[in-house]
Amino acid sequence: MDNTQSIVARIVAGTREIMDAPTGNVPLHIPVFGENAAGYVNECITTGWVSSVGKFVDRFEADLAKFTGAKRAVAMVNGTAALHIALKLCGVEPGDEVLLPSLTFVATANAVSYCHATPHFVEVESRTLGIDAKAIRDYLGEIAEVKNGSCTNRKTGNTIRCLIGMHAFGHPFELESVLELCEDFGLNLVEDAAESIGSYYKQQHTGLFGRVGTLSFNGNKTITTGGGGAIITNDDSLADLAKHLTTTGKKPHPYRYFHDMVAHNYRMPNLNAALGCSQLEDLPAILESKRKIAAGYISTFADNSDFEILAEPENCQSNYWLNALVLSDLNAKHHDAVIQQLNQAGIIVRPIWEPLHTLPMYCDAPKMELGVTMNLANRIINLPSTPRIL
Amino acid sequence: MDNTQSIVARIVAGTREIMDAPTGNVPLHIPVFGENAAGYVNECITTGWVSSVGKFVDRFEADLAKFTGAKRAVAMVNGTAALHIALKLCGVEPGDEVLLPSLTFVATANAVSYCHATPHFVEVESRTLGIDAKAIRDYLGEIAEVKNGSCTNRKTGNTIRCLIGMHAFGHPFELESVLELCEDFGLNLVEDAAESIGSYYKQQHTGLFGRVGTLSFNGNKTITTGGGGAIITNDDSLADLAKHLTTTGKKPHPYRYFHDMVAHNYRMPNLNAALGCSQLEDLPAILESKRKIAAGYISTFADNSDFEILAEPENCQSNYWLNALVLSDLNAKHHDAVIQQLNQAGIIVRPIWEPLHTLPMYCDAPKMELGVTMNLANRIINLPSTPRIL
């Protein structure tokens, strides 16, 4: 038995036991709905309140703010829209540059493109899979200068307006050093918390450390609204502007259609928010189940030199959205084969994203040395992580 | 009794009779759901298929294509997203100009702005409330030149890439003369059919005459998916590109995340499509009811010199999404007062949109003479038009 087969055999056996699935396909991550999901959604249909106004939208925002500890939450059609709005809230303008990891879902970079700004890719660290403040500091020291609190790329002359950090698979990135970096270089921090609802850094919910945080409720996420997203913030004026920007910039009036800025149709419909309200009720049980699954993977695969299971960083609590297996450097060459054979065996797994700086539309974008990113991209496999609540 | 009171009294009495609502508030337009709405939506929850993949999305697209007679329909999160994608399909690039009516919902112009192109406002005709091909032809004769099949604004030097026409309140604009205009000036025609599902020009469904048509399923529309929209087209390659552009540009692969262009997260979730499938089943009954309501308004207010009810243009069949009352020129000064008093009397009405060239973000945009637009904006009132199917 070669090492690929040995690794696959161990993962299949371990996963089937942890996920309590002795036979059949074990999905990567599917939605689970509690007892109120159907009732809330049906109420929208019975009352006719299915669209962008309705009690569930307001309640979802209030419940989400309460759960995360944010002063405000603003619900949107999806996490991509939330990122787009977050960048607008930070004043990103055409021609600006925005720093972001290459190791993230493509939406993070696309949101920058929607602003006609330039994605500028930065390095991550292996410990968290999130942005590496020390490496970025060294890089900015070389290429950037700060004047009047604003950061300029000396090579391009463009303003570097923001840094986006992403809490990969629910593991918080190292916020303390990142916040210091942003302070020193005059950068707004946007936290892409699409994957990290229920994840905490030093007891504070992710998404609330930067200027604005963004969440996703896509169908593959910890909780879902079908399609959905939100921004969270402790700044009332930012939240008000976010709501205005997502509701076509219409000024409140009983019947007049007066809009005062170029804005968007990004509001989450009440039908989707109804599902979201039930999902927020389910969230504590979902998180408990997900942490049990993670503990199962970590203990099952503890005595193992071929790969490790990524554990939550120190001082953090992770939602373990998708458990991440990291092959040892020696086994990186088996990455593709392991993924293929696991899927064939009914254990549905996926690699991490193709690093964004390797995609055709972003391969000419500015970037720092991304050796850790490339190394990790060839070693990570996400394991089945669907919670059980019923 | 002054003329405002007389007009209001007649509209209140007529509307209450037509809408069979002797007391209470008569809403402008609220959704009505047939017997399968709750069942289809519940099926999404039971099966877990709530997000951007699922059988209802595919079925909704197939049913929508069948209903309209389009070769293809591609479902999206809303009509604004559909307009944005339609402009991309027509090759609109930053710096281009796009012709569109000033008398439309703000999303039509915002979609142009999302492309970093310039909205260029053109005139409408009173008969249809839609774009006036003759007036636009005269205007383009003055300011534009056509070379190698491409239209250039001689004043700005920019390419005029597209003309967007909008079928206001479901009344088809004069497509034959508009298509000739587009042919002569090398313009792509985009039909904003947000309001005109079930409306036909010479027996062909609106949205299928131009390069691409866009629909909206917002909560206030003839049928709704909570939030939703679609493009319809007879061009397979455009439909394929639309689907790719709305699903993050991801290349099909069982597990790899490879994206080949800057694209969007605009796909309609299955939860919303489920509602849409039931609404398409209800649509024939809804349209029948709406035409009866329109006939009621037209006959009730036939003998009347103070205002008229807009009837479908010749050779057209209108869905009469929102019935439109047009005050006579002499009564234009009563417009605000009539709207206010009707709303106070429980007859929920609205004016037409503020002409877009008067809004702060578009007041400096290029435009032709818009006398008819301004005249109409001060005379139109939309009347309650909710269909009955149960």
Could you walk me through the main structural features you see in this protein, from its secondary elements to its overall organization?
Two copies of one chain form a homodimer. By secondary structure, chain A is of the alpha+beta class. The first copy, chain A, has two domains: about 5-30 and about 280-355, no CATH class; about 35-280, Aspartate Aminotransferase, domain 2. Helix content of chain A is about 35%, strand content about 15%. Chain A contains eleven helices and 16 strands. The first copy, chain A, has helices at about 5-20, 35-45, 55-70, 80-90, 105-115, 135-145, 175-185, 235-245, 270-300, 335-345, 370-375; strands spanning about 70-75, 95-100, 120, 145, 150-155, 160-165, 190, 200, 205, 210-215, 230-235, 305-310, 315, 325, 350, 380-385. In chain A, strands 1, 2, 3, 4, 5, 6, 7, 10 and 11 form a nine-stranded mixed beta sheet that branches. In chain A, strands 12-14-16-15 form a four-stranded antiparallel beta sheet. Chain A is globular, with a radius of gyration of 21 Å. The model of chain A has no long low-confidence stretch (mean pLDDT about 95).
In short:
The structure is a homodimer of 390-residue chains. The first copy, chain A, is α+β, with helices and mostly antiparallel strands and 390 residues long.
